[in-house]
Amino acid sequence: MNEAFLPLIDSLTTRCRGPDGSAVLEAVRANAPTWLLQMPGFLDVADRAAFRNEVFGATRERMSREFCDLVEVLSVDRPWVLVIEDMHWSDFQTVDVLSRFAHGDRKAQVLVLATYRVGDSIMSGHPVRRLHQDLEIHGRCSELQLDRLSKTEVEHHLALRFQDEKLASALSGPMFGRTQGQPLFIASLVDYLVNHESIVEIDGAWRLGSGTALSEDVVPNDLINMITHRIDRLSEDEQQLLEAASVAGSECAAALVAAGLSRDTVETEEVLEGLARKDHTVVACGVSEWPDGTYSGSYAFQHILYQNVLYKRLTPARRLQIHHRMGERLEQGYGGRTENIAATLALHFEQSHDFPRALRYLSQAAENSAKRLGHEEATNYLSRALGILDRLGTTDQYGPRTSLLRQRSWARRSAGDLAGSVRDLEEMIACAADAGQLRHEVNGLLAVSRFCLHADRRMCLHASNEALAKSEGLEDDAFKALVQGSSASINLWLKGWQEQDAALCEKALRVTADARDHGTLIRRYGIEGILECLRSRYEECRRSGTDGKKLAQEVGDVYIFVLFNVMESTALIHLGQWRRLQRETIAALALAERNANRPAIALCRLTLGWLHVEAMDFHGARELCESIDQAVLEENPFAFFFQRAVLAKVFVGLNEPQRAHQQFDDVMQRSNSDGIMMDYTIYAQLHHCLCEYSLQVGDIAQARTSAIKLYEYVAPAPDRNHLAQAHGLLTRVALAAGDLEEARAELSRALSTLEDTDMPLAAWRVYRAGVEVCESLGKPAEAVRYRARFEEVIRTLAGNFEPDDRLRSSLLAALDAPGAR
């Protein structure tokens, strides 16, 4: 340093001092040439720091005051809003100016919006956090903590970003799941997807380019780098603790993290608490208490991406070790209540390659999910378990594999995947056959036969016959009787009444009277419901359906629940308990819709359609039938025949004979081409309606044929309901043919069949036929009596419903319609 500069420095320092510092800035400008301040040698002066602190400290003070003066003057005419973003990155002078302005007593019309990230400010020691606290203490500021975006807000943001609501709807779920609504992460992920052409612009419109857009593994590099940089600023001990916490999950107990590292719980909790206060990578979220008395603080990652990045930093062996330690500690802590955390234990033991325990807890987790109606989740657990068996490749897999396949079949069926359910059952049967386990093979065949009764009738009958034949090799007489009863009930349902089949059903019910296990009870209720329905003992049939629903609900089997609801509804419609039918089926429909079970949804809507058409709300019935998924009708013959039967009644009721005729043609074509039989109740409905249609179009010969077919089908059974209706139809056919004596004789048979019964739907139809016969015979007094009985039934049925229910109105309107059925 040239000593010649020293007098000049002294002169500048002296001349720049003032009693009030008012001339500092002007003095520097006038007396310190720019070339001097820029010379390298000048920066080496020993008392440079003192000089710069004196001169430029005073300068900053003056500039801060002048800034505040400027803002005050500018806000005289109009209010101002100053926005200062990311203050955790700002220089300290900005914080000084903001502090001076906020603490001042000026009357400026200014709103200052300053944003900062608390975690980053604490980690870097930035003074903005202290300024915030100071201003808040003195009432100089208000804090507005910005929440993360909701899923709806994320969708709105994406719609604005891409100008496509459909694309935004498709992306919002996965995007929200990955980012949890964190705006910074959303922006980064959107940029990543666009840059990697997962979202592409084609002809001015944005479209999904590949499945990567929906992948849960996508984490942009800039986010990884940001999170990694933040983690690397922590101590080594803190990093290890967070890595162990990432193994525990997005939320964890300090005791579990301690177990993963084999260290003291209190010490671990103190470190986590310190991280929650200073770093905000984790946040405190209450306490955790285990059944064995373990008590510690609970902590959650601020964002799932932090957990993901930390988890991937672990070496494979270290990760396996921590998983196993945590699994064993949780197992110990929960003792005999491990079913409450089965999914967590399954994950820890699966990741630590303790496969026997992983299999046990995956099965238990699936059972828990099924009870909560989480059937997709249950299917995933069971698929993981079967995958473990495939990896092990051991020969002694029969027991666990058949059990898991049966369990997954139930889950898939309840989720609406009927084809997948059947595949699992078929694989289970093959597995049992290979292992020589005859009873399990027969059990699988029984499951296929009962399930396919409504899904694939050819497979149903084949499986039923196979089960019956193979059961002969079993020594368990009670089980053989159950198999025989199950096969016999299917024959009754699809082939009509046979005394020998009924006897086998009775035997099965006797030998299972004291049964308590789920599989036997489900089969028992199915056999009993079919038998009592064909006997027209509808209260007993209803009870079987109700009990079956309860049992299915206990295990979360949605599809079987709905099938039993159809059984219950069949009884209720003939008992005239229509409000109860409506209430129960609407509840079943809600359950099916929550599980997105398309076949179950279809059956519920068809059941409601049946109710509407019998109540003569033909338009409502038609709407329900036409809302059915066509794919379900193609896959499920029961749903197909059910829909066509209801639509045939709709179009007869609407006096649209051509459209009614189309329904009959569709049924005949499907039945002939596929060789599929109709079940008892659908057969009775279709032939009843075909007779009404034929009378409507004046085809008396066809009407007689249909009525006789119905009579011959139901007469062998002790079914007084359909038998009375068959005689009622023959009454009307004879009347249309002008044979009054035959009409009177058939009416007498119908009335005799109805004696001492409570079947209002059949009674209504017979009494209506009685009115027509008596009017034709010139017996007005008798006609009035039958009309009164007919109207009494109608009013009783209408009384099921609330005054504003459309079914009440449609029923009461029938009293004024001379052509009402």
Explain how this protein is built.
There is one protein chain. The protein has 821 residues and is mostly helical. It is elongated, with a radius of gyration of 40 Å.
Give the end-to-end Cα distance, rounded to a whole number of Å: 118 Å
**C-alpha Rg, in Å?**
40 Å
Q: How much of the sequence is in beta strands?
A: under 5%
Number of strands: 7
* Morphology call: elongated
Largest sheet entry: 3 strands, antiparallel
Unreliable spans are 1-33, 35-49
Q: Structural class per helix/strand content? A: mainly alpha
How many helices does DSSP assign?
41
- Helicity range: over 70%
Record the strand order, biggest sheet. Answer: 5-7-6
Mean pLDDT score, rounded? 85
How would you briefly describe this protein structure?
The protein is mainly α and 821 residues long.
List keywords for this structure.
two-stranded parallel ribbon, 41 helices, mainly alpha, elongated, 821 residues, disordered N terminus
Topology:
Blueprint: H1 5-16, H2 24-31, H3 34-38, H4 48-74, E1 80-84, H5 92-103, E2 110-114, H6 118-124, H7 128-137, H8 151-162, H9 165-179, H10 183-195, E3 199-202, E4 205-208, H11 221-232, H12 236-248, E5 251-253, H13 254-261, H14 265-278, E6 282-289, E7 295-301, H15 304-313, H16 316-334, H17 342-351, H18 355-371, H19 375-392, H20 398-414, H21 418-434, H22 438-452, H23 457-471, H24 477-495, H25 499-511, H26 518-534, H27 538-554, H28 558-575, H29 578-594, H30 598-614, H31 618-626, H32 630-635, H33 637-653, H34 657-674, H35 680-697, H36 700-714, H37 720-736, H38 740-754, H39 760-776, H40 780-798, H41 806-813
Parallel strand pairs: 1-2
Antiparallel strand pairs: 3-4, 5-7, 6-7
Helix pairs in contact: 4-5, 8-9, 11-15, 12-13, 12-15, 13-14, 13-16, 16-17, 17-18, 18-19, 18-20, 19-20, 20-21, 21-22, 22-23, 22-24, 23-24, 24-25, 24-26, 25-26, 26-27, 26-28, 27-28, 28-29, 28-30, 29-30, 30-31, 30-33, 31-33, 33-34, 33-35, 34-35, 35-36, 35-37, 36-37, 37-38, 37-39, 38-39, 39-40, 40-41
